[in-house]
Predict the structure.
Amino acid sequence: MKVLLVNGSPKANGNTARALAEVAEQLNAEGIDTEAFQLGAKPIRDCIGCGQCGKLDCRCTFDDDVNELIAAAEQADGFVFGSPVYYAHPSGRILSALDRAFYAGSKAFAHKPGAAVAVARRGGTSTTFDVLNKYFTINQMPVVASTYWNNVFGAQPGEAAQDAEGLATMRNIGKNMAWLLHCIEAGKAAGIEAPKADRARTNFIR
């Protein structure tokens, strides 16, 4: 089993990476493989609602890093999305990436556990955490909890290492993610399949 850790910070070795590394270390200790996916610093275009992904097989019509993310997601069993806090919300790059990845490649994520991690100098982690969790709840993904809000504090690179409670929270994400993945694996072995969703669409403007 493998968990994909998506870093929504442009800094590959910043505090968000440090928080995700703590989760990864615990997952590895629990027998779960991990893969880091760095969104990087180059621009990521947002979804324009063109609908062309409906004609493709789990891919966005704009062939860039988002399609690489979807391809990596297809091979993963769980996810951790990490973001720095910019103006009390997640980074624009992770929002643009996830909007497109979930719209075009939702089946690559469905029924797989997810956790959100927010990293900030001081405030805005709760709203960031809330926004990222909504990607899970719209796509039938079990949300992995911890022992506190999934946040770590630090301004300058390296300061996250000083947040003992935050790093403990990250380790507990790893433990709970591993436990849930093992439970899902045992369920599949016992013949329990993921439910098939009912679908209906209601327009409010007529």
